[in-house]
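Aim 2, interim progress. The first record below pairs a target sequence with its structure tokens.
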Amino acid sequence: MHATVTDHRSDVAVLHLRGELDADTAGQLSAALAGLLERPVPRIVVDLTGLKFCDSVGAERVHHE
């Protein structure tokens, strides 16, 4: 999985996910979200359109983070 962040205005950060989100890559998602949560951005959008695959572990991580 590859994650990039795009800032839109001063109040929105979009986390773009590409590739496969599964048990092996869920930690990368957690790390990316943790970094965003440390920033003073009130709204975080997770863009899943670039994912080719997401298993139940990945879906759980998106839901609970």
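The second target in this work package is listed in the same format:
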Amino acid sequence: MLQSEYGIREVDRERAFLVLGEPKENRNKLKKAINSVYEYRSKYVHGRVFIPNPMSMKLADESLDKFQDKLLKHIDLAMLLLVASLQKLIIEDGDEFKFSETVLMRSQVEEGSIP
């Protein structure tokens, strides 16, 4: 996995925790679940998920069922995160989330020259 992909996934997950709060229990399990959603999304978007053609299959075809089960598993968590974030915006009378990030070079951290 590319470092940049891991970085984006990590940032997105941490932003979800910032918006919705740190999980009190099962933090590692939730991190893995969010990582799995992000990884599946990435594979789907970049064409690495086989999408069965329902027109060339029988309705009872097992591969279609497996595809739908895996897809829905990931969609469920993604939708919960999205709806909970939107609900927080509405409750707090907001209209957007803004994040600010700082990029530091390793030498800055080691020297203690962080502004």
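DSSP finds four helices and no strands in the chain. This observation will shape the mutagenesis plan for the next reporting period.
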